[in-house]
């Protein structure tokens, strides 16, 4: 029997429809339109297309977006300055640094220049720590979106063996942390793992996030396993040998149309959440200021 196809577009569309309603309610109540700022370094066509797509989705759900395009010659220090300035701008609710950045830039330093309150992509060290330890803060968008796909598919993670193939700090690593928090037993693998086929064959859930076209062969998939392909390579090819995996998997995401749409949905949901938090902080501050009267008279002033 062929695998069930997990329709990421349909699941994301439902999430975005609900988000549109909540965004409109927030705008009506506060008068503030949530704003997502995207920063892109260089002129990579794929990165520019991703940013443009996210900007269009922002408008669809009733948000505004800004794009800051920086030349490929931008230094780490210059990028950090831009991100810190955006973090200090009260009109911006969420910040996305499109990755990857050019190789000469310290990507970790750039990510960590984003304020935790505006890290709606969940890329800072603080966000990773929260995901691993407390469950608070904003989650990495792609791993969080993958969990949403699993939930929508009815996958019970408690006690299941999940194999994450990939170890990037914004996808593979946080994915494993989120799965652990859901009660799964997690094995991390990567492109250099010895006998990768055996690890994959033991998995109830396979998360492919290594960025190597069709590295994971269909014949490796355990019968009935759930396969989530977060890879996106040239030619619309994922990290899983899709056609060969169909007869083995119980459910599988296509590429494209699987993980990508949910990543964007989570990004925008977290942007609204950031705007709501900022509005609550402003309201508390304004209420506090309104309660503060004139300076109290000090006893010694009467003498």
Automatic annotation (TrEMBL):
Provide the alphabetized UniProt keywords.
Answer: Amino-acid biosynthesis, Histidine biosynthesis, Hydrolase, Methionine biosynthesis, Multifunctional enzyme, NADP, One-carbon metabolism, Oxidoreductase, Purine biosynthesis
Keyword NADP in the entry? The reply is: yes
Q: Which reaction does it catalyse?
A: (6R)-5,10-methenyltetrahydrofolate + H2O = (6R)-10-formyltetrahydrofolate + H(+); (6R)-5,10-methylene-5,6,7,8-tetrahydrofolate + NADP(+) = (6R)-5,10-methenyltetrahydrofolate + NADPH
Query: So which domain of life are we looking at?
Result: Bacteria
Which terms does the UniProt entry file under GO BP? Answer: L-histidine biosynthetic process; methionine biosynthetic process; purine nucleotide biosynthetic process; tetrahydrofolate interconversion
- Where is the Tetrahydrofolate dehydrogenase/cyclohydrolase catalytic domain positioned along the sequence? 6-121
Q: What is its EC number?
A: 1.5.1.5, 3.5.4.9
The keyword Ribonucleoprotein belongs to this UniProt entry's keyword annotation: no
The pathway is:
One-carbon metabolism; tetrahydrofolate interconversion
The residues that the entry says bind NADP(+) are: 166-168
A GO molecular-function descriptor:
methenyltetrahydrofolate cyclohydrolase activity
- Chain ranges of the Tetrahydrofolate dehydrogenase/cyclohydrolase NAD(P)-binding domain: 140-277
Q: Kindly state one GO CC term assigned in the UniProt record.
A: cytosol
What PROSITE patterns does UniProt report for this protein, alphabetically?
THF_DHG_CYH_2
What the entry lists under Pfam families is as follows: THF_DHG_CYH, THF_DHG_CYH_C
PANTHER family according to UniProt: C-1-TETRAHYDROFOLATE SYNTHASE, CYTOPLASMIC, C-1-TETRAHYDROFOLATE SYNTHASE, CYTOPLASMIC-RELATED
Q: How does it assemble?
A: Homodimer.
- Its biological function? Catalyzes the oxidation of 5,10-methylenetetrahydrofolate to 5,10-methenyltetrahydrofolate and then the hydrolysis of 5,10-methenyltetrahydrofolate to 10-formyltetrahydrofolate.
Entry similarity comment: Belongs to the tetrahydrofolate dehydrogenase/cyclohydrolase family.
Record-given protein name? Bifunctional protein FolD
């Amino acid at each position: 029997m062929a695998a069930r196809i997990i329709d990421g577009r349909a699941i994301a569309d439902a999430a975005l429809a609900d988000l549109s309603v909540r965004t409109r309610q927030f705008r009506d109540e506060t008068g503030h339109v949530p704003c997502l700022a995207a920063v892109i370094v260089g002129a990579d066509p794929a990165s520019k297309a991703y940013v443009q797509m996210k900007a269009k989705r922002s408008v669809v759900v009733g948000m505004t977006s800004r794009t800051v395009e920086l030349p490929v010659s931008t230094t780490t220090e210059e990028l950090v300055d831009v991100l810190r300035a955006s973090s200090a701008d009260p009109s911006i609710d969420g910040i996305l640094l499109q990755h990857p950045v050019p190789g000469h830039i310290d990507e970790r330093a750039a990510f960590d220049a984003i304020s935790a309150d505006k890290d709606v992509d969940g890329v800072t060290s603080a966000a990773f720590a929260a995901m691993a330890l407390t469950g608070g803060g904003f989650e990495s968008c792609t791993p969080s979106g993958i969990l949403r796909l699993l939930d929508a598919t009815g996958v019970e993670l408690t006690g299941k063996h999940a194999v994450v193939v990939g170890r990037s700090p914004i996808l593979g690593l946080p994915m494993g942390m989120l799965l652990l928090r859901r009660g799964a037993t997690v094995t991390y693998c990567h492109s250099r793992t010895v006998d990768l086929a055996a690890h994959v064959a033991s998995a109830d859930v396979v998360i492919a996030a290594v960025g190597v076209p069709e590295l994971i062969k269909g014949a490796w998939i355990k019968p009935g396993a759930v396969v989530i392909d977060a890879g996106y390579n040239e030619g619309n090819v994922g990290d899983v040998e899709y056609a060969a995996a169909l007869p083995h998997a119980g459910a599988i995401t296509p590429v494209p149309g699987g993980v990508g749409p949910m990543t964007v949905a989570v990004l925008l949901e977290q942007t609204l959440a950031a705007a709501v938090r900022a509005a609550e902080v402003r309201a508390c501050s304004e209420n506090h200021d309104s309660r503060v009267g004139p300076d109290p008279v000090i006893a010694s002033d009467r003498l």
